[in-house]
Amino acid sequence: MAKKIIKLWFDKQGDYLEVTFEKKAGFFRQTKNDAVMEKVDDKGHILGFSVMNVSKLSRKPLEVFLV
Fold first, then answer.
1. Nearest to 53, CA basis, from 41, 27, 31, 35
2. What is the widest separation between alpha-carbon atoms in the chain?
3. Which long-range contacts (CB under 8 A, 24 or more apart) does 43-46 make?
4. pTM for the model
5. Using one digit for the tens of pLDDT, what is the confidence trace for 5-44?
6. CB under 8 Å to 33, separation ≥6 — which residues?
7. Residue 14 CA: distances (Å) to CA of 23, 44, 48, 62
8. What are the backbone dihedrals phi and psi of residue 50, each rounded to the nearest 5 degrees, phi first?
């Protein structure tokens, strides 16, 4: 089985979390949750996601469907 590296980056001052599954050119697009953006390549494959205002999520879990 091939191993995958997942990269996490948290900006405490900006209250921003970014998770990357694959390092590849892409762009962010909105999801149904205003706090979450998904990063996709030009074919729509998910490369990662970002979460804004992470500290406000401490009271309940965040559930988002990534396409």
1. 35
2. 38
3. 46/21
4. 0.83
5. 899 999 999 999 999 999 899 999 999 888 899 999 999 9
6. 62, 64
7. 22, 27, 18, 19
8. -130, 150
